[in-house]
Specification:
Blueprint (H helix, E strand, L loop, with lengths): L7 H8 L4 E6 L4 H10 L3 E5 L7 H11 L5 E5 L5 H10 L3 E4 L5 H10 L24 H11 L1 E6 L2 H5 L1 H5 L6 E4 L1 H7 L9 H16 L3 E5 L3 H9 L4 E6 L2 H17 L3
Parallel strand pairs: 1-2, 1-8, 2-3, 3-4, 4-5, 5-6, 6-7, 7-8
């Protein structure tokens, strides 16, 4: 029996500013994706910008989420019509578009995720996974432009300067703050603790909230994420199948070395 892929409950929660749990899928592994989905994360972000994902293993990761309640998002490699279209045709419930710096780029990103009947440029097909290979076309077409989440990342001083105009674009659901990229483009290599970077982050937060857009970002763990949720963020990526495993592995090895020194 066919199962609708779009889960509007997550979109509604985000647009209402409620907290949503999220994890990074960066290994290119459908197995780790399945572990996160079965663990109960609300959203899984498949990182095609920096992770070793191709279309086939992205599909497998999305299939690993099916039936769990975990909604797959895709961070596409760039603000590009083809990448957005392919991610959505695979069944992504949301798109994270990196490095948005101007209102025009924001408008283009939204158009890439919408069908022409909603003012977009997304191509339509009746055979892809999103429409259950043709078995669910009517439902998907009726819901896609409403239920797919569009989140834009601000990662440059230009993006900060234009944040009010970016956040005002119709069809933008959320604003993601990439702290490492933002700090680096501001002259502080992967160091968002600097006062001017923190000031920029506050500027982004204020504009997103003023325009009713949810806020997203990353945290190293849940303790860090909770501080952000309490500050008004809705989507925080606080676990990763790469860095979380590496921290656990390093701690285990150090415990061994402490117990059995050479």
């Amino acid at each position: 029996m066919k199962q609708h892929l779009l889960n509007d409950s997550l979109a509604r929660r985000l647009r209402a500013g409620k907290p949503v749990s999220a994890a990074w899928a960066q290994l290119g592994s459908n197995v780790s994706a399945e572990i996160f989905a079965e663990a109960g994360f609300d959203a899984l972000i498949i990182d095609m910008e920096h992770g070793p994902w191709d279309m086939q293993n992205t599909l497998a990761a999305m299939q690993a989420c099916k039936g769990t309640g975990c909604v797959p998002f895709v961070r596409v490699p760039w603000n590009d019509m083809v990448w957005c279209k392919r991610a959505l045709d695979l069944g992504a419930g949301g798109v994270h578009v990196p490095y948005i710096s101007t209102r025009e780029e924001a408008e283009y990103a939204v158009r890439c995720c919408k069908y022409p009947t909603a003012g977009g440029v997304r191509g339509i097909a009746g055979s892809q996974r999103a429409v259950c290979y043709g078995l669910d076309k009517a439902d998907y077409y009726a819901r896609a432009d409403r239920d797919i989440v569009v989140m834009l990342a601000i990662e440059s001083p230009e993006g900060v300067a234009n944040i009010d105009a970016i956040a005002a674009v119709e069809g933008v659901d959320g604003i993601f703050i990439g702290p490492s990229d933002l700090s680096t483009t501001m002259g502080h290599l992967a160091d968002p603790s600097q006062p001017d970077v923190q000031a920029a982050i506050r500027t982004i937060e204020a504009a997103a909230k003023a325009h009713g857009r949810f806020l997203g970002t990353i945290a190293p763990d849940f303790e860090g994420a909770k501080k952000l949720y309490d500050r008004g963020y809705s989507l925080v990526y606080f676990m990763s199948d790469t860095t979380s495993l590496s921290v656990l592995a390093r701690g285990a090895v150090q415990a061994f070395k402490d117990s059995y020194p050479e």
